[in-house]
Design a protein that fits this description.
The protein has 199 residues and is α+β, with helices and mostly antiparallel strands. It has one domain: Lysozyme. A four-stranded antiparallel β-sheet has the order 1-2-3-4. Strand 3 and strand 4 form a beta hairpin. The longest helix is centred in the first third of the chain and has 17 residues. The radius of gyration is 17 Å and the shape is globular.
């Protein structure tokens, strides 16, 4: 019926609201944390250093669907088309190993965002893995909001929502990743197929 949300949309909205409610107002103790992060390629375990105004801690367990819904909601509510928001869900899934990476869990960093030098940032600290320094956020919502600031500062055109190849090409021009264009584009296509091909 017109004007009524489908049942699956209501379920997703409830999951999103529960997630936002559980994140709101959570206090994090002040701390400087050092944790081990393995380096499979070199067989080493370099230290991951965290420095922030508030301490890093593992994010509470959140369902994959709630993460997808939150990223989609935050980006689309910033004025971007739904298809574009879904593409960035794929980027986030790829960059964070389907939201299981240490950076995602402890620094609430959804896309491997580094420390920006020429734009406003919502980060509240930094998270270092090896020689790489990444932005750290107080919660996932803030991490996604900072991604939106990045998208606007870099003038990402909404036409890139057409396919993973177009987005991967533009991201490569912006220096977002160091992998080859072919590899990154293929990775985004795999994530699209996994999360959105049958929806």
């Amino acid at each position: 019926m017109r004007g009524m949300l489908p049942v699956f949309a209501i379920g997703s909205l409830i999951a999103l609201l529960v997630f936002l409610f559980t994140q709101k107002g959570k206090a994090t103790p002040r701390a400087k944390v050092t944790a081990s992060v393995g380096n499979k390629a070199k067989g080493e375990a370099p230290k991951a250093k965290v420095s922030a105004s508030v301490g890093a801690h593992a994010a509470p367990a959140v369902s994959e669907q709630a993460i997808i819904d939150l990223i989609t909601y935050k980006i689309s509510s910033a004025g971007y088309p739904l298809q574009f928001a879904k593409m960035w869900v794929c980027v986030s899934a790829h960059e964070s190993d389907d939201w299981k990476s240490e950076l995602f869990k402890r620094a609430h960093n959804p896309v491997g965002m580094k420390i920006p030098s020429e734009r406003q940032s919502l980060r509240n600290g930094s998270y270092t893995i090896g020689k790489q320094v990444y932005s750290m956020y107080p919660d996932l919502r803030t991490g996604i909001e900072d991604l939106v600031l990045y998208l606007k500062s870099q003038n990402y055109p909404v036409a890139l929502a057409v396919n993973p190849d177009a987005l991967a090409y533009f991201m490569k021009q912006k220096g977002f990743y160091s992998d080859t264009l072919e590899n990154y584009s293929a990775a985004l296509q795999r994530k699209w197929n996994k999360f959105f091909a049958n929806r």
